[in-house]
Amino acid sequence: MDLYINGEWMRSGKTLDVTNPATGEVIDTVPFAGKKEAELAVSAAYEAFPQWSSQTASERSRYLMRWFQLIDEQQDEIGEIMTKEQGKPLREAIGEVQYANSFIQWYAEEAKRIYGDTIPASAINKRILVQKQPVGVIAAITPWNFPAAMITRKVAPALAAGCTAIVKPAEQTPLTALKLAQLAEEAGIPAGVLNVITGNAQDIGEAWLEDSRVRKITFTGSTEVGKLLMRGAAQTVKKISLELGGHAPFIIMDDANLEEAVDQVIASKFRNAGQTCVCANRIYVAREIAEAFTEKFAAKVNELKVGNGLEEGVTIGPLIDKAAVEKVEAHIHDALKKGGQVTVGGRWTNHFFEPTIITGATDEMLCMNEETFGPLAPVATFDTEEEVIERANHTPYGLAAYVFTENIGRAIRLSEKLEYGIVGVNDGMPSVAQAPFGGWKESGLGREGGKYGIEEYLEVKYVSVAFK
Ligand code: ADP
Question: What are the catalytic residues (predicted)?
Answer without folding.
Answer: 243, 277
